[in-house]
Amino acid sequence: MIPGPFAYHRPASLREAVGLLADLGEEARPLAGGHSLVPMMKLRLATPAHLVDLGGVKELKGIRGEGGEIIIGAMTTQHELVGSDLLATKIPILRETALVIADPQVRYVGTLGGNVANGDPGNDMPAVMLCLGAIYQVTGRGGERRIPAREFYQGAYFTALEPGEIITAVRIPVPPSGHGSAYEKLKRKIGDYATAAAAVVLSVSNGKVATCSIGLTNVAETPLWAEEAARIVIGSALDAASIKRAVGAAEAITSPATDNRGPAHYRTKMAGIMVARALARARDRAGG
Amino acid sequence: MAKSQISMTVNGEAVEALAEPRTLLIHFLREQLNLTGPHIGCDTSHCGACTVDLDGKSVKSCTIFAVQANGADVRTIEGMAAADGTLHALQEGFREMHGLQCGFCTPGMIMRAYRLLQEISSPTEDEIRQGIAGNLCRCTGYQNIVKAIQYAAAKMNGVPFQEAAE
User: Fold this and answer.
1) Domain that includes residue A13, residue range
2) Are both B8 and B65 inside the same structural domain?
3) C-alpha to C-alpha distance for A284 and A1, rounded to whole angstroms
4) Is there a single domain that holds both residue A152 and residue A188?
5) In a domain, B164, yes or no
6) Which of A95, A167, A287, B14 measures 20 to 30 Å from A266, CA to CA?
7) What was the pLDDT predicted at B166?
8) Nearest by CB: A103 against B57, B67, B134
9) What is the pTM of this model?
10) What is the total count of domains within chain B?
11) Is B13 helix (H, G, I), strand (E, B) or coil?
């Protein structure tokens, strides 16, 4: 399969990239790792006249800590997330999630920015970003703005990005030390999208859940932030009754499609089971 | 669409060719450089038969444009054996351990295993299985592929290969 013809641009700076995207308008698409876009182009489901390859823009690379945040450049690959000692120490859920995305070859190329910007409800990082309360740093010709991940996703492949804007970095508030986290993903095989998945970050104090946040993957048109489910477990000792109520609250906000991963009601139940497992594992990993 | 000049190092040699931007790296390698070792299996970035080494990463060359690899250092299965024909430890391992039957997936398997062993010189069986998770084989059931990679790791580390008990 061969994609349709396009003109290729490889800007060396963010300013140049944003200028190109603004000038070329709707005919242009930014190219990050390309492992969602190129298959779409091969199927001719996407036929951009111009590709603006962000691979040469150095400002979009790298992982660094700044104050209470970790800032990850949008072109940082999943492989680089897996290999980062800083992330392994401070936000281990990112490594855990990256490792269940696709396969090693795809992870060498696929980027965090592409994963969160594409708006594909099957992508794993968006729910983790909702869970962590990440902020997307966005640049367009008009300048820079910041969009909370929890306000970014509007529908399948439909996000708060304006035409010509790109995500340049993801800013993640570092969870408290001693927090526990888990990303539980049910999938049919390596490389598959989730039948359902849940991200949990929580902290424990005196045997009770002090803080908790829960995100859900691929059980609606957008990733979901399960605010009510998290509220239910806060203050509890994660006893069976609290977990059951939280699972119910998480299931209630899902609206998965029936597809070849299973019928909708099955995927809703699996989302609940992923929440219960992720809560238990995050609790085991938490200090306090 | 205008063709652009693409230059890269492939198996240690500088190459240059004209290609349209939409030319995928796998087509560039196979059709313009006549390197038909990398195979097109699924053409959808699932099977890994097209895996090559690009700037120290294993990539699926069916999902990368040749123009993205402009200036890169690429290695394919053709670049694995020594100039005198001596097989690379991985090639030897696949032969000795019967790591292939039809052989279609083998170039991708070997190129992926090559990078894996660069990153983890003595991988566990689980690390090998996770490491080749992006490469499909429809013949062997993977057992002998894992052994072949263990054989190569042992040889590259200069230690005797001990086949694990069944």
Assistant:
1) 7-52
2) yes
3) 47
4) no
5) no
6) A95
7) 61
8) B134
9) 0.96
10) 2
11) strand
Mean pLDDT of A135-140: 98
Is B43 in CB contact (< 8 Å) with chain A? Answer: yes
Helix, strand, or coil here: B34? coil
| Encoded tokens for A109 | 């190329």
- Same-domain check for residues A26 and A99: no
**Dist. CA B108–CA B129, nearest whole Å:** 14
Q: Is the domain of B72 the same as that of B118? A: no
Contacts with A36 from chain B: Cβ below 8 Å? none
The alpha-carbon gap from B110 to the nearest alpha carbon of chain A, in Å, equals: 13
Judge if A185 and A109 occupy the same domain. no
Q: Which residue of A has its CA nearest to B116?
A: A104
On average, the pLDDT of chain A sits at: 97
| Inter-chain CB proximity A109 and B131 less than 8 Å | no
Task: For residue A1, tell me if it sits in a domain.
Answer: no
Cβ contact, residue pair B65, A34, below 8 Å: yes
Taking the C-alpha atoms of residue A200 and residue A96, their distance in angstroms, rounded to an integer, is 12
Of A6, A34, A51, the CB nearest to B64: A34
Q: Which tokens is A106 given?
A: 């795809």
Could you tell me if residue A2 is inside a domain? no
Residue A38 and residue B44: Cβ atoms within 8 Å?
no
Under a CB-based contact definition with an 8 Å cutoff, are residues A278 and A270 in contact? Answer: no
Report the amino acid identity of residue B129.
R
Q: Compute the mean pLDDT over every residue in chain B, rounded to the nearest whole number.
A: 96
In angstroms, the separation between the Cα of residue B123 and the nearest Cα of chain A is 15
B165: pLDDT strictly greater than 80: no
